[in-house]
Amino acid sequence: MNKRVLLARYPSGLPVEADFVLDEVPVPEPKDGEFLIRNLYFSLDAGFRQWMREGAGDNYLAAMQIGDPVMSLTLGRVERSRHPDFSEGTLVLGRHAWETFTLTDASDFTAPLEVDPEVPLHLYLGTLGPTGLTAYFGLLDIGQPKAGETVVVSAAGGAVGSIAGQIAKALGCRTVGLTSSDDKAAWLEAEVGYDIGINYNAADGLDAALQRACPEGVDIYFDNVGGAILDTTLTHLRQNARVVLCGMVADYHDADKPYGITHLWQAITKRATLKGFMYTDEVARYPEAMARMRGWLDAGAIRTFDEIHEGIETTPAAFCGLFTGANRGKAIIEL
Amino acid sequence: MNKRVLLARYPSGLPVEADFVLDEVPVPEPKDGEFLIRNLYFSLDAGFRQWMREGAGDNYLAAMQIGDPVMSLTLGRVERSRHPDFSEGTLVLGRHAWETFTLTDASDFTAPLEVDPEVPLHLYLGTLGPTGLTAYFGLLDIGQPKAGETVVVSAAGGAVGSIAGQIAKALGCRTVGLTSSDDKAAWLEAEVGYDIGINYNAADGLDAALQRACPEGVDIYFDNVGGAILDTTLTHLRQNARVVLCGMVADYHDADKPYGITHLWQAITKRATLKGFMYTDEVARYPEAMARMRGWLDAGAIRTFDEIHEGIETTPAAFCGLFTGANRGKAIIEL
């Protein structure tokens, strides 16, 4: 049978497990031009929350539909094929869905995946996959880090943040990670290698903490959250600062009452650049990026923090954990 | 006597004439290392409003002080000098104040000015001065306009906006100007040369007007106002759009309750760049910029829209007019 996780309803505010429902249907059979993928891993990405909303269709992808399997990046292997380009046994990475089997004609984003057998397969969804590529292109292309600069990362212990912070450190930057608890702030320093971990929920507030951690100001802010944390950090930018607009998780679950950014004028006097991006625009440079990430991994300059959940039934709870601060590193479902 | 316009109190909201007061004091005498400038023109710039506020000192310049002559860009001629680098008769441009005579040791921003006698002198405060340089560097360096692209300019009939729109047009762009009345929108099209003038106060709203004027989206947004107009325009950006953050006049007079920008996430999916700047960072390129501006002026590709007010007594009313929509082009006081 094909086990699936369907969208039961559009989440209101933070996603909860009851927004999703499991079902089972027969495994479909490929027709001419189609092939069947047996999914091995799901990538859990907070950013997908933004398409769990009515009328989200103006935002890069169409809104997800109630009753459909939930859209997700997945890694799988071709099980049966009637498609000329995808033979049985081929590993594929794609924007598919939370289901054990996916039938496709490759008209969605689906790409064959070449792997090094010495590398754990799930790394190709994380550090050596979309997550790592996002951190790499965002930090290097927009951030343009120079040794000695101060780099602040929000959601610093999350999938992209934990990699971005480590790349910045490998390049000789001073790194400051923002996270949601004292525990995680200590973990950022002890395990992920940040010079300073800040709990933005601490009583004395993010503003004071940034003042202490970055008395000379922030050269690069790698922003995964938007909202009030972005707004506060804008007031700590240094001259010619770069702000990497990577994600705005703060807005995803509150589209009706989004936070209003009031300090954008700081970008004028600080001559700052804010830039959004999508790693998928840089397909031609994936080999360069993956080779460099692999080099850092092999040298021990970057560690992978993967949080692997076993079984499709764990998917809703693990996904909801991305929004509550429970998650550390890259959340992956192993089937 | 030295006639001066003093800051009587910090404006509350929009500046009004009663925020300023005229006085007369004896003309000061230069000591060693000082020189006396007879001011010929004041440049009126909405941006200076942001320093008419208590505690504005973290914002590039110190706050103005109650009872002091109001800070302003001025153009004048050295009347008496005991400074080795500024001989009598030299024309100077500087960040001085609304007064007929300025005594300085050149420790503020003060630079000798070389002029072409065939050009009206006041153009060196406007199209061939700070205003033109701001439009030039903002549009060319950040906007990077290409022929055929759609360029939207806010405060499109103002000093910087009217020049930015004309440069964009000279470079083959489609230009859309945003302004505050039907009259000015018609004037933008008939006189300033915009392809489309939009009154953002019209009943059907800016959103609908931008949808009609830019169905394919906005490649470059040259923003002089910030606030709600910036926020709405963010939702009309095209892929890889550039947003020139030049001024946020909407925030200057309401610092206690600034407008919150809610659509910054658009920069992610649109891969947009937002960048602030100051023309004064590009001193080395002034000759290049002035030569090119002069070429466009001589060729008739750019017209200067200067609004010249006669006499220091007219300064408060003319300055306040920058905020009410009364102003067209570059407002200058001629002494």
Short overview:
The structure is a homodimer of 335-residue chains. Chain A has nine helices and 15 strands. Chain A has 335 residues and is α/β, with parallel strands linked by helices.
Which architecture of the largest domain in chain A per CATH? Alpha-Beta Complex
Instruction: Supply the number of structural domains of chain A.
Output: 2
Strand content of chain A: 25-35%
Low-confidence stretches of chain A: none
Overall form of chain A: globular
Q: Count of DSSP helices of chain A? A: 9
Q: How would you name the oligomeric state of the polypeptide chains in this document? A: homodimer
CATH topology of the largest domain in chain A: Quinone Oxidoreductase, Chain A, domain 1
Number of strands of chain A: 15
The CATH C-level name of the largest domain in chain A is Alpha Beta
- Distance between the amino and carboxyl termini of chain A: 14 Å
What percent of the residues of chain A sit in helical stretches (DSSP H or I)? 10-25%
Average of the residue pLDDT scores of chain A: 94
Q: Largest interface, by Cβ-Cβ below 8 angstroms: which chains and how many residues each?
A: A-B, 30 and 30 residues
Largest sheet of chain A: 7 strands, mixed
Class by SSE composition of chain A: alpha/beta
User: What order do the SSEs of chain A take from the amino end to the carboxyl end, as H and E?
Assistant: EEEEEEEHEHEHEHEHEHHEHEHE
